[in-house]
Amino acid sequence: MSDATGDETADEARADGGTTAPTADPSAAETAAAGVAGEGGGRSSNTFLGDVWVNFKRWNVKAVRNPFVLVVSLVQPVIFLVLFTEVFGNVAGRAVSEGLPGVSYETYLVPAIAIQVSLAAAVTSGIGLVNDIENGMFEKVLVSPMNRTAVFLGKTAAEVFRIAIQVAIILGLGVLLGAEIETGVVGAAAIVATGIVFSLWFIALSNSLAVLTRDQESTIIGANLLQFPLLFLSSAFLPLETLPDWIQTFARLNPVTYGVDTARALMLDRDVMTVVEVSRFDGAMNTVVPGFAVLLGLAVAFGSVAVFLLSRASSSDVQ
Amino acid sequence: MSSPGSDESPAIAVDGLELTYSDGTRAVDGVDMTVPRGEFFGFLGPNGAGKTTTIKVLATLLSPTAGEVTVNGFDVRSDPRKVRESIGYMAQETSIDPELTAAENVRFACEAYGVPRGQRADRVDELLDLVDLGDVADKRAEEFSGGMKKRLDAATALVHRPPLVFLDEPTTGLDPKARNRLWEYFRRINDRGTTIFLTTQYLEEADQLCDRLAVILDGGIVAEGSPAELKREVGGEVLEVHFEGGDGGDARSADADRGDRADGDSGDDRERAAEIAREFDPFTGATVEVTDDGISVTAATAREHGTDLLVALRDAGLTVTGFNVRAPTLDDVFLAITGEEVETERMDAGREEVQA
Q1: How is chain B split into domains, by residue range?
Q2: Which residue of chain B comes nearest to A17, CA vs CA?
Q3: Stretch B157-176: mean pLDDT, rounded?
Q4: Is B242 a residue whose pLDDT tops 50?
Q5: Residue B43 pLDDT exceeds 80
Q6: Which of B50, B336, B12 is nearest to B195 (CA)?
Q7: Of all residues in chain B, what percent are helix, strand and coil, respectively (each to 5)?
Q8: Cβ separation of A145 and B23 shorter than 8 Å?
């Protein structure tokens, strides 16, 4: 609840500084001057960052208010983590150690679960948008002087922030279950970053579904329907070599493979890229660099579609 | 010509507004209107007449297909952000975040509209007091009744003390008590000098609140003026006569469900009475309508010659069970304007039936 009243925090003062405060941070004031009416008086002079922050705060308060969503999007991956290691640990562990000697199944699986968490959490982004459309907040925000890009950036930032926390929780749990992060704290942070970058394309996709269907159930079903095939038809749970050819083919086109391989390379500190051979870099970087490149490309591609759909929805269908 | 945003420019100036949706629906077709600052302006019309479309253009949610629209002196096309800063907008559907408390909803609006940080806490308290939600400030909005949600919504539209507020059917679906309460707030806001643009289907609401009205029908404005002027246009007073065997003893407004008037004997009686009233000499130029339980005659001389008509009806063998002479309401205005085309069509159909 401290988010709700955390108005006086230093953080906000910095981000929202241009808002009429005479002690405004100069860079924020510049942004304000660029986007806002000078003669509008003291009534309204939002900054871009201020608008981002206002929406970031609102979505975080909503997330805290709705702990059920937070927990549920964590529970499924945790169940997977425990069940897979316990049930398939022996069998799968053997398959893993053929390709990656000395790597336990726990260690192999944790990066995949981290990606699963960001996939599951990204689904809720579209649900939030549908709810906003349904309860009128979407239009309310459109009619306010807030910068529309800032509005969606703030919302996405709140979701990404939550994903970062959830991935960190999974990594902590994984270590407790016996997984080892070879690259240490820096590597763990990099895995969190991978989870964030990976989540972007799916956040964009679930928002696109939300705008297209404008219906909560369709958005949930659509996003969930994709979630499991994407996870299983990838390098997430077993080494690709052990899987049938058609799955291998699909996995090469599957964004999850790139996310999991990148996270796994960081976890194991090895080049484990299953799809493309890159050898220009050093060790794990041969996976991490192309992995990030693909994920960022996907984020841009899906993001553009979502931005297009959102801006179309914002301006309604008028000739 | 006044400079943009200056105090001399009218709150709303619309010239030749047209709006066509991408599916080809022409929702607004050539609307002109001017709303001076400080006025309580009512925008009336039946469902689908173009009320909400017009208000959305004024609030920059829709971009006009053609025409010039300025709000507080700012062009909605070239200066949408300045328009947004200078207006409050309350949508037809209640728009609040149910997961936030009342205070948080208002605070979010304060932040969205850039209310200076130092003034936010006071503004939140002040507005929640204005709409009588001060004691539930820290309750989540999802626990509120429909009326409370509407009041909260109204409060969030006022955070930046806008000189102009749009209210799109603000009382639809509320019980009379909640409605009266909202009216009270709207009056208070208007007394503070805020221009109010209200759309409504309730004529009583427009009559109670508005300084001036415009009636929109099929995307165009068909009447404009103060409530009193519009009532004068109806042309006189209304004489309602009830007959035995009507659907109910109570006087009903003329617009109440005329659909099933043709059934039964009383229907014939009423038709006969209407015919007599139409041919009644002192009532030249009168409008005669068949209602659920009788007829309704609008005429300049309804008060003086009403009894003569009653006698004529009795002479024709009709049993009058009640009558009432009253001043016209906006309902009559609305019907006279919006119902005319529908009415003639229906009457022609009725006559054919009778002949057959």
Answers
A1: 12-228, 232-355
A2: B117
A3: 90
A4: yes
A5: yes
A6: B12
A7: 40, 25, 35
A8: no
B contacts of A50 (beta carbons < 8 Å): 111, 114
Could you say which of A20, A61, A141 has the minimum Cβ distance to residue B100? A61
DSSP string, A3-46: HHHGGG-HHHHHHTTTSS-TT--HHHHHHHHHHS-STTTTS---
Q: Specify the CATH architecture of the domain B12-228.
A: 3-Layer(aba) Sandwich (3.40)
Q: How many CB atoms lie within 10 A of CB A128?
A: 23
Tens of pLDDT along A113-122? Answer: 999 999 988 8
Kindly compute the dihedral angle of the four CA atoms of residues A46, A52, A56, A59, in this order, to the nearest 10 degrees. 80
Compute the mean pLDDT over every residue in chain B, rounded to the nearest whole number.
82
Question: Which residues 58-87 of A are in CB contact (within 8 Å) with B?
Answer: 58, 61-62, 65-66
Amino acid at B330: L
Residue of A nearest to B92 (CA): A136
Task: Kindly list the residues from chain B whose CB atom is less than 8 angstroms away from the CB atom of residue A150.
Answer: none
Q: Is the ipTM of this complex over 0.85?
A: no
The first and second tokens of residue B35, run together, are 């709303």
B28 and B54 Cβ atoms separated by less than 8 Å: yes
Q: What is the pTM of this model?
A: 0.77
Distance between CA A188 and CA A194 in Å, rounded? 10
Instruction: Tell me the pLDDT tens digit for each residue of A177-189.
Output: 888 898 889 999 9
Pick B232-355's CATH classification: 3.30.565, 3.30.70, 3.30.2030, 3.40.50.
3.30.70
